[in-house]
Design brief:
- The protein is an alpha/beta fold.
- It has two domains: 94 residues, no CATH class; 205 residues, 3-Layer(aba) Sandwich (Rossmann fold).
- Helices cover 48% and strands 13% of the residues.
- The strands form two sheets. Strands 3-5-6-7-4-8 form a six-stranded parallel β-sheet, with helices on both faces.
- Helix 11 links the parallel strand 6 and strand 7.
- Helix 10 packs parallel to helix 11.
- The longest helix is centred in the N-terminal third of the chain and has 15 residues.
- It is elongated, with a radius of gyration of 31 Å.
- The mean pLDDT is 88.
Amino acid sequence: MGNLGDELKKLIPKGFAERKAAVITRLEEHPETKRIKGTFPDRVDNLTHPTNYGSLSRHLVSFDNCRGCKDLVGCQNDHKGHCSVVEENPDDDKGLIYRLQKCPLLLSYEKRQKVMGKIKSHFIPDHIVNATFESIDLDPHRSAAIIKAMDLCENFEVGKSKKGLYLYGQMGVGKSLISGAIAQELASQGVDVAMVYVPDFMSEAKDAIGSKTETVLSKLEALQNVTVLILDDIGAEYLTTWTRDEILGPILQRRMERLVTIYTSNLTIKELRQHLINVKDAAKTMDQRQHEKKAERILERIEPFAEVLHVGGRNRRRDNSHNTGGKL
């Protein structure tokens, strides 16, 4: 019977040594392997030893996948959104360890989700909720309002900031977009924000008239207590005595002198006053003087606590229906 070692050598496929050498060469010549050697010169003696083939090869595959990756959807790694990193092994002064960590794309996505989780929107289009100051064109007709909005965000302090903004102007000039950018910026700072399209919210409330369903009540309470409330397009709603006095009034009453409220409107403050007086069922509920008092009471909860700013310019909503890209 022959030597056992000789017998085992016969089982090794022909050319195995050459293929093994080729693998080692590829590992050695990989840019990431060279970087590892330069970063950890005292720990790479056995970097391409056969016992480390698996770990190093998996690391290099992950490295190559990440290098060409552009988005999470196209991630080629086994653990989506994770990349392999190499570190010193704390239990072996000559060894290295490879571990998975979240890649920048996943971290960015999670940060974005966290920000969006801070924004509670009701009946607001996605392009408004997702607006940023970087996406808004700073033209002369609305630059003052945009700068004031940015100042509000920069100087905002939870529990201390009390004054909001009343942004008014013609349709399509970007009032809602500016308020959406405020929501994004404050949410990125960890501030909870609610943004409500007033006409649709009032319609929902009106449908629940006389009952104040649990859904409406829970939303009402949320709007009364959220750190920053954005009431989008106030003045465009179908307003009744009940929605004015039982919905809008209580929201603003709880917030004044306590929490920041931001408004967008097509109406000046003077025009908003008339809107609050001329509710749809005015003749059926109380006399004119009473409606005027109710309107004044609501304005007293708005004017002292919001800086009134005009937003001018062209109707970008119409222009952007033919736009191929760029800032809004």
